[in-house]
Write a structure and sequence with these properties.
5-stranded mixed β-sheet; alpha+beta; Tumour Suppressor Smad4; about 20% helix; elongated; 11 strands
Length: about 160
């Protein structure tokens, strides 16, 4: 399933670029994503989707856009990518992550129903089996780990207080 949106994270803020739109990144007050930092051009880069592919394009910036230490003019975004604006090592970091539409919820099987007889989620648009939303799954896993770690910490504090009394 193709990614319907692209999440763009810079300086702790997340922005969403939708199919059919072009998002500009730069120091200009008119930029869709404003990056107020030395070395960032007024219109430094743009993100768009062309022929079903998300692209980040350098907008002929003075100090360049870098991926993997190399200056780039264009980057095809087919997974989570990080680029630096303005400098190959100390530039402003931008994370780009394509996201597919959230698949339809899967039905929970009743008791006695085998896993193979379950109805799987399908795309409302194409009727094809829906791909799992990996970003959502990963986000849920991270939160579960943090919740478990927090519970263990609370338990350790309670045990320490009881032991001290």
């Amino acid at each position: 399933m193709a990614a319907d949106t692209l999440r763009i994270s810079v300086a702790g803020e997340t922005h969403v670029c939708r199919d059919g739109s072009t998002t500009t990144i730069g120091s200009s007050p008119d930029a869709d994503i404003r990056v107020d930092h030395p070395g960032i051009s007024r219109v430094h880069a743009q993100v768009l989707r062309r022929n079903g592919v998300w692209l980040l394009e350098d907008a002929s910036s003075t100090n360049g856009t870098f991926h993997g230490g190399s200056r780039i003019e264009q980057l095809e975004i087919d997974g989570v990518e990080t680029v630096l604006l303005g400098h190959p090592d100390e530039g402003v970091s931008i994370d780009l992550a394509p996201e597919a539409a959230t698949p339809a919820p899967r039905s929970i099987p009743e008791r006695g129903v085998s896993a193979t007889s379950r109805t799987s989620a399908v795309s409302a648009e194409t009727g094809a089996p829906a791909a799992p939303n990996t970003a959502s799954w990963l986000r849920q896993l991270v939160w579960a780990v943090w919740a478990l770690a927090g519970s263990i910490l609370v338990l350790a504090i309670v045990v320490a207080i009881v032991a001290a009394s």
